[in-house]
Design a protein that fits this description.
Oligomer: homodimer
Strand content of chain A: 35-45%
Largest sheet of chain A: 7 strands, antiparallel
Shape of chain A: globular
CATH architecture of chain A: Roll
Largest interface: A-B, 25 and 25 residues
Mean pLDDT of chain A: 96
CATH superfamily of chain A: Electron Transport, Fmn-binding Protein, Chain A
Number of domains of chain A: 1
CATH class of chain A: Mainly Beta
Helix content of chain A: 10-25%
Distance between the termini of chain A: 19 Å
Radius of gyration of chain A: 14 Å
Structural class of chain A: alpha+beta
Low-confidence stretches of chain A: none
Chain lengths: ~130, ~130
């Protein structure tokens, strides 16, 4: 079943646009942080790293929200609510290079830290509004 | 007591930059929405309207998060967590005109709806990170 506005969400995600990811702190209060964003056709993908607050948050409570607007026209926007269905290191190192190319035109992500693995957060959207 | 990074937050808020406001839905899940943003030197101010989900949310649970990045350099960003200390109609109609000027160069906000009042959401920041 395709969600309403999903195609528009895909176009915004494919553009060089930042998303804002909302997660829940351990006490249930909200946290919002700008992120690079990707999708695999079904799930929204955010690349984070071990030790980050947002990773800890979604591990505790998988409910998230994502907003994304067109960098060239912020009034073209999409609001998404959804659930993290997977966090995985699999493919995450290659994926951060893909993101570095998309957002910075770099063949390889240059800011990796030794001993800290990248982690993919995969989000299944449940509701999309404009 | 001045919070760390507060001056940087003020500069970003004063720029023609969008904020992303994170609130809590009635079931405790996060919601994130791009907003115009202002401050009064102490509090962060978001102008919304009666009937909006974010207003309902902060009335139920005042805990919020705000992220804001420089539209011209998204890597210059500020993450704020805080609490809504007031929601008020007082000054909200004049304030939405101020926001229309800041963000759209319009002397008067042209999208008002008859019978729906504007409401100011005033947020006291408790923690700011970069």
């Amino acid at each position: 079943m395709k969600l309403k506005h999903w195609e528009e969400a895909l176009r915004l995600i494919e553009g060089k646009n930042f998303a804002n990811l909302g997660t829940l702190m351990l006490d249930g209060s909200p946290q919002v942080t700008p992120v690079w964003v990707d999708h695999d056709g079904e799930l929204i993908i955010v690349n984070t790293a071990e030790g980050r607050i947002k990773l800890r948050n979604v591990t505790k409570d998988p409910r998230v929200a994502v907003s994304i607007f067109d960098q060239d026209n912020p009034y073209n926007k999409i609001l998404i609510r959804g659930t993290v269905v997977e966090t995985t290191k699999k493919g995450a190192e290659e994926h951060i290079d893909k993101m570095a190319m998309k957002y910075r035109g770099l063949a390889k992500y240059p800011w990796g830290q030794p001993g800290i693995s990248r982690v993919l957060i995969k989000i299944r959207p449940s509701r999309i509004s404009k």
